Amino acid sequence: MRSLLEVGNLSVRYDKAQILNGVSLEVGAEEFVGLVGPNGAGKSTLLRAISGLVNFEARMKRGTTGNIVLEGEVRFGGERIDSLAPHEIRMKGLVLCPERRRPFRELTVLENLMAGAYLASGSTDTGTRLERAFALFPQLAARSGQIAGTLSGGEQQMLAIARALMFEAKLLCIDEPSLGLAPKIRGELFVAIARVHEAGVPVLLVEQEVGQVFRMSDRNYVLSQGKIIAHGPSAQLMADETLRASYLGL
Fold first, then answer.
1. Stated pTM of the model
2. CA distance 141 to 210
3. What is the DSSP letter of 130?
4. How much of the chain exceeds pLDDT 90, in percent?
5. Are the C-beta atoms of residues 134 and 112 closer than 8 Å to each other?
6. Could you give the domains of the chain?
């Protein structure tokens, strides 16, 4: 397996609180990888560290009380990126869809998507990328002129993912996409995420719906108290009764 993302011995400390402790993982160039674990395990912090946001926050706080310390390595496409700014990491094609969706609420769906294409320097033109986004998310095509703030929660999450794809993501990191959504809408969203991966985009998915993640993923990592405690294919992890009961809620 050719690795696209490699995280090596990554640790994050907020003042005296150790959030991540020696985390290592990788995502292959064609993989769908799940990252699961209990609330407060450090999953969102890990995605923020990978995408450069923790490093940015650490720089802003340097020399003040409550310092943030990030240690370890993050490589993307073989290049070390853990010292880069978030926008530099994004320009390389590693794109984070944060939790709580966060569209530009006052703009239309189409304007949000065009904002996602801003400064993109990919191999395809904006029109082609827009057609691809609408093909993957037909609900958005039907609402292209609608103000994003008036969309349902599920539609806003789809918009956040489609906006990331407009930047020609080489790896899509998605944080808790189903948070706060009704079961039916969650199902539609997971189908849409599966379509994105089938279209050739590697995915690293953080999600509380463990069963759903395991049905979609090639491999999974289980994070608890800032450490990776298990990793492997879904069937292997599901066969561990202690892991199922103690960490997966299954």
1. 0.91
2. 30
3. H
4. 58
5. no
6. 3-248 (3.40.50.300)
